[in-house]
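Hi U.,

Before I forget, here's the chain from the pilot set. I'm dumping it here mostly so it's searchable later in email.
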Amino acid sequence: MREIEFICGFTQNPEGSVLARFGRTVVLCTVKAEEGVPNFIEGEEGWLTAEYSMLPGSTYVRKKRRTAAGELDGRTVEISRLIGRSIRSCIDLSKLGRQTLYVDCDVLQADGGTRTAAISGAALALRLAVDRLLDNGFLEDDPFTGLVGAVSVGKVDGRIVCDLSYDQDVRATVDFNVIMTQEGEFVEVQGTGEGGTFSEEELIRMLASARKGIEEILLKQEESFEAYRRSYTQSW
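Structure:
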C-alpha cells in the first residue's frame, strides 16, 4: 500500500468534502445536496449520483476538458457509474426525502488508482455531508449505513501487488478493482487478465490482499473523520 491521507473539510461550500491522497494520486471529492429527484424516482425516496473527471494537468500529457471535447468518453462514464453504485451502498435512500446528493470526484493528480481513491474519498465526504445535513435540520433520520473502501490489486512481474501506481498498472498482467463495506462484504469486484491469465489460488490471494488494504483504508477514514469532528467541535 502507498501512503494514504484523507483531509476532511478541504473546501467549505459543499456539505461534505475530502481530499484523498494515495501516494502521488490526489482526488478532490465533494458532496452537494439539492432539492428534487430525477423523474424515475417514485415516492419519497431520494437519489445519489456521481461524476468523475480528470483535470487537464492531472496527467503528464494534458487532458482535454470534457466540455471542450463536447462529449463524455467511455472511461469517464464507466468510472462515474462505478462511483455512484459504490457510494449508494453507503446510504439508505428512503431516508433522504425528495433530494439528490451529487458526488463529484475531480482528479488533481493521477498516478494510478484514481477510481478507487475517488470511491474511498467520496464515501468519507458523504459521511461528512450527512452529518452536516443532520446538524442543520435537513434530515430527520440518519441515512448513512457505513463507509466503503476501494483499492486496486494485480499481478505485477509475477507478484501480487495492492494499490497499484501507474508504473505498476501498465506492467500488470492481471488487474482488479475491489470495493468492500466496513462489515467486510463486497460491493463490487472488477477484474481482468489484460496480459495473461490467473489461477483460482492467485484470485484468492488477490482478494485477500485487497481485503487487507481496504481494512487499512477504512481505519484511515475513521481516524480522519474523528480528528475532523474533534477539531470542528472545539472550534464551536
